[in-house]
Every structure is written in C-alpha cells, then in structure tokens.
Specification:
- The chain is an all-alpha fold.
- It has a single domain (9-355), classed as MFS general substrate transporter like domains (Growth Hormone, Chain: A, Up-down Bundle), CATH 1.20.1250.
- The chain has helices at 9-42, 44-48, 54-86, 88-106, 112-115, 118-147, 154-183, 187-193, 195-213, 219-226, 234-264, 267-273, 283-311, 313-336, 340-355.
- The model has no long low-confidence stretch (mean pLDDT 82).
Amino acid sequence: MSPVNTQSPTQRVNQRRVAFATVIGTTIEWYDFFIYATAAGLIFAELFFKPAGAQIGLLLSFASVGISFLFRPLGAFLAGHYGDKIGRRAMLVLTLIMMGAATTLIGVLPTFATAGVIAPILLLILRILQGISAGGEWGGAVLMAVEHAPKDRRGRAGAFPQLGVPLGMLLASGVMAIMTGIVSPGEAFMAWGWRVPFLISFVLIIVGYFIRRGVEESPIFEEIALKKKQTKVPAVELFRKHWLLVILAALVFAGNNAAGYMTTGGFLQAYMTDPAGSIGFSRTQVLLAVSFGAVMWFIFTLLSGYLSDSIGRKRTYQIGFVSLALCVFPLFWLVNSANLGLLYVAFALFSVGLGL
C-alpha cells in the first residue's frame, strides 16, 4: 500500500514549481544536445570534415557526437560531487549556462572552408563542453525533482525532468524542419540557415536561468547542510560504499541509451537522407517524422512515471526493455520500406519502449 500523501498546500505548490523548472531546464539542455546531433547527421560532414571525403567525413561527424559521451560521466561525477557540497540548484544553473554558451558558440564557428583545421578542433572542444554539461544536468534535475517529492509520487516526479529529453528533441527537430523546409531551404541552409538553431540557444538559456534561479534548494540537501553532515569527498564515498550498484546501474542504462541514440543521435537521419542510399527521404520529411516520434516518446515517458509508482521501477523498466528488443529489427524493416507512413509507425513503436 502506498503511504498517504501528507503534503501541505505550500509544499504541493513548490513541488509543481520544481517540476516545471526541471522540465524547462532539461528541455533547453537537450534541445542544445540534439541540435548538434541532428546537424552532425545532416551537414557537419560537409561543413567541417569535407577534406576527409564523404564517407570518412560522415564517420568523423558521428565521432564528434560520440566524443561527448566520453565526457558525460565526468560531468555527472563533478555535478554529483559539487551538488552534495554547494547544492543542487547551483549546479543546475551552472550546467545550463555551460551548455548554452557552448551551443551558441557553435553557431558562430567558422567552417573548414574558411578556417581550415582549426574549425573542427574548435567544434570538438565545444562538443566536449556540451557532454560535460549534459552529464551533470540530467542526473541533477532528476535528483532535485525526486528530493522535493513525497515517497508515493517519486516515480512521476522523476519522470518530469526526463520529459525534457523528448521535448528537447521535438524542439530541435521542429526548428531544423522549419529551417530546412521554409526559412532556408537548399543551399541557404548550408550557407547560413544551420547556424540559427544554435544561436536560438542564447535566448532559451536566459529564460531557463531565471526559471531555475527561482526554485528552492532541495530539502534533503538543506537538512544535510543544517546538520553539517556533508562528506568531504562525496564521490569517493559513493564508490567506496556502493561501487557495485553504480556499475550495475550504468550497465543497465547503457542498453536503452544505445537504442535511443541510434534514433536521436543523427544516425538514422543520415541513413534515411543519404543521396547514395535507396531510401531517399528529404531532410524535412525525416525531421518531421522524428518530431512525431518525440511526441510519442513524451507520452510514454509521462506514463512511465505513474506506472512506476503503481507497479515499481524495476518492472516498468523490464517492460520497456522487452518492448525495445522486440522493436529493433522491425524499426529497420519499416525504415527500409522507404514508405513515409511506415516511417511514422516505426518511430511510434520504438518510442513505447524508449519512454518506459
């Protein structure tokens, strides 16, 4: 039986404020992250890695997406460590600013044609900063939301920051679709249109900053600080006492991350729009299909929060894994059909397991 919710009206209002702030902040962070992944799949091989040739250039472009994942654990480590020392809110604001600054600067980078080899080097440095920021942002936002929630609603509270991931993808693919299909189609997109989605991040980051600054600090952190029980080196203490749990959680999460980034990390976008391939969708068609997939992902992520409070976190996760496993091969069969309607079906089916 679930424990009775004894929150006061003030606590409930504060929890809703925290949920809103974590969703908005996470949406902005992941908009930045997915804008890069989408651009890497569609145009960065041409703009930054062209001398390597079409195929190697595309591999290098995807490698620049992947390099951020090497630094995300570092970001999680640093944000977790200092979040236990100076507070969750301070680290969430810091990661938001770091991500926004890196994304905005990508929007003003020179390309290889104008700056030579320095262009891809600067691109990789900024992508590393994105990776560090994303690594600290997601876990910190979930922690903040869960620590403000009563025990019987922690599942749905923890789902709210995760909603920012499909919302970020929806925003990123939607903006890219507008730029490729309406504002700057064709050569205009390659010349200047691709920069606009990156520069928009500057405006979003200002909005996110003021929203997050208005959120109260986690009550659990305030209690620890009041009792002066902060550990001097929290990260070391974590690995000393719970190393097996950390490793198991990381390995379990790696499965759905691998599946998720196959669809959101630019690979499928490049695969479906490759002029030398047999599928031949346009950039705008693929981006609109990805946007639809993001909506479905959002719905099943929201459902997972309520489901996990009802049947448990582990069972919800197991259902999601089984769904992903059953959909991996049909995903490619449907994509390879080169039928636009079946492409929407593919993204819808895959989003069920991804959300759960």
